[in-house]
Amino acid sequence: MQKRRTQVGIVGAGPAGLMLSQLLAREGIDSIVIENRSRAYCEARIRAGLLEQGSIDMLGEAGVGARMHKEGLAHDGIELRFGGQGHRIDIKALTGRNVMIYGQHEIVKDLNAARIAEGGQIVFEAGDVRIHDFSSKAPRITYTHGGEPVEITCDIIAGCDGFHGICRPAIPAEAITLYDHPYPMGWVGVLVDAPPVSHELVYSSTPRGFALFTMRSMTVSRLYLQCGPDEDIAEWSDDRIWEELELRLDGGSDHKLPKGPILQKGVTEMRSFVCEPMQFGNLFLAGDAAHIVPPTGAKGMNLAFADVRRLSRAAADFLKRGRREGLDLYSQRCLKRVWRAQHFSWWMTTLMHSFDTYNAFERRAQQSEREYVASSAAGAKTLAENYAGMPWAWDED
Ligand code: FAD
Ligand code: DHB
C-alpha cells in the first residue's frame, strides 16, 4: 500500500473540488484531489453556463479568470417570455451587478491547467474511493490507482464528489437530515452549432412546457426543453427537438430560431435537495454533494463556489492558526445562502414550467405571478437580486 500525506484530502475534481484546491494553494495549504473519472471526461462534461457576479470575481481573485474575461459573454439582462411576448428584466439596472456566460467545462479546464502548472496534485481515474476515520483527527482516504492501493492521511476531508458521490452516504444517517423535493419533469438539453436566438438568455413559458434559450458563444447555442421525469433521449429525434423549440420559443416577430447541427443531447433530472448539517467530524461537504437545485435559476455551480470560498477560509484559519470556529460553524453559515438559492430555484421553476397536476385556479395564479414579475419594479427586483446572486456581504460572518 502506497502511503501519502496532505493537509486537505479532496474527493471530486468538479468545480467545487478544483476551486477549493486552488483557493487553499493561495493560502499555502497543501491538498490532493481524488477523482474517479479521466481528465478528458471531466473537461468535456457540458453542464452549467451562467456565473453570478460573485463567482466571476472569485475566478479572477483565484488567478483563473484570464480566459473567462476574454471569452465569457457578460450579460446585463434576461428575457422572460410568456403569452407570446417578451419581457426584459434588466439585471444590471436593478442590482448594479452582471452575470456571465462561460461554460462549466471551460472553468474545469482552466482550473485543471492552473493546478497542474503550479504542481498541484490531482489523481484522475482513481478506483474504489473510500473515506475513513473522519470523526477522528486523522481521517483517511483510500483508493486504487493503476491497480495499486493508495492511502492518504489528512487533517480534513472535503466531500466535493457531487450528488452521486460516496462522501455524503458515509455519514451516519442519524446525524443528518435530508430534505428532498423531486419534480414531475426533467430537461432535454442540446448543444447546437448555431448562433443563439438572442444576445441574452430567453426563459420561455408556454402551455406546451418551458424552454430555455442560452448559449456557449455567439456561434454555439445551448437549448433546453421541459420534458417528462424519466424520459429516454432516444425518444427525442432532432426533428422533434426543433419542432418543439420553435413552438415553445413562440417568437412572433421578436425572434427567429437559428438552426444547425445538434452536437450533443441528453436528459437532466430535476430535484431540490439539502443535507443538513453539511459536515460531520472532520468531513465537510461542498457543492452538489451537499445540495442540488433545479437548473432554472442557474444556481448550482455558483453555490458550489460559495461553499468552497467559506471552507477554504475556515480550513486556513484552522490549519495555519489553530482556530476551529470557522470549521465548526461552516454548515450553519453556508445554509443561509443555500436555502435562499433553494427557494429561488424552486420559485423560478414553478413560475415558468407547466404542471399537468395544476387545476385551473393554480394556472391562473401562476400566470398572475409571471405578470407581476414582468410589470412591477418590486417583482422584477426580487428576481434580479436573486438571479445575479446575493452579494458576499449579505451572509458574511
Ligand atoms: P460535480 O460537478 O458533480 O463534480 C463532482 C466530481 O466528483 C465529478 O468530477 C465526479 O466525477 C467526481 N466523483 C463522483 N463520485 C466520485 C467518487 N466516488 N470518487 C471520486 N470522485 C467522484 N449551475 C450554475 O451555477 N449555473 C448554471 O447555469 C447551471 N446550469 C446547469 C444546467 C444543467 C443542465 C445541469 C445538469 C446543471 C446546471 N448547473 C448550473 C449545476 C452545476 O452543473 C452543478 O451544480 C455543479 O456541477 C456542481 O459542482 P460540484 O463540483 O459540486 O459537483
Ligand atoms: C444555463 C443553464 C441554466 O439552467 C440557466 O438558468 C442559465 C444558463 C446554461 O447552460 O447556459
Shape: globular
CATH top level of the domain at 2-75 and 100-179 and 271-353? Alpha Beta
Overall radius of gyration: 21 Å
Q: Please, how many helices? A: 13
How is the main sheet built? 8 strands, mixed
Can you list the ligands bound to this structure? flavin-adenine dinucleotide, 3,4-dihydroxybenzoic acid
User: What's the architecture of the domain at 2-75 and 100-179 and 271-353, going by CATH?
Assistant: 3-Layer(bba) Sandwich
Determine the mean pLDDT: 97
CATH fold descriptor of the domain at 2-75 and 100-179 and 271-353: FAD/NAD(P)-binding domain
Tell me the fraction of residues in β-strands, as a range: 25-35%
Helix coverage percent: 25-40%
Question: In words, what does this structure look like?
Answer:
Helix content is 37%, strand content 28%. By secondary structure, the chain is an alpha/beta fold. The chain has a domain at 2-75 and 100-179 and 271-353: FAD/NAD(P)-binding domain, CATH 3.50.50.60. The strands form 4 sheets. An 8-stranded mixed β-sheet has the order 7-6-15-16-17-14-18-21. A hairpin with a 2-residue loop joins strand 15 and strand 16. The longest helix has 23 residues, at 330-352. The two termini are 42 Å apart. The mean pLDDT is 97. The chain binds flavin-adenine dinucleotide (FAD) and 3,4-dihydroxybenzoic acid. Flavin-adenine dinucleotide is lined by residues 11-17, 34-37, 42, 47-50, 104, 126, 129, 160-162, 165-166, 187, 189, 268, 287-288, 295, 298-302, 304.
Explain briefly what this protein structure is.
This protein has 397 residues and is α/β, with parallel strands linked by helices. It is 37% helix and 28% strand.
